[in-house]
Amino acid sequence: MTNYQNIVVLTGAGISAESGLSTFRGDDGLWENHRLEDVATPEAFRRDPELVHRFYNMRRANLGTVRPNPAHKALARLEQEHDGEVLVITQNIDDLHERGGSRNILHMHGELLKVHCRSCAEVFDWSGDIDETVECPDCGVIPSLRPHIVWFGEMPFCMYEIDEALRSCDLFVSIGTSGNVYPAAGFVAQVSAMGRARSIELNLEPSEGVSLFNEARQGPASKLVPEFVERLLAGEA
Ligand code: OAD
Question: Are 42 and 151 a contacting pair, CB within 8 Å?
Answer without folding.
Answer: yes
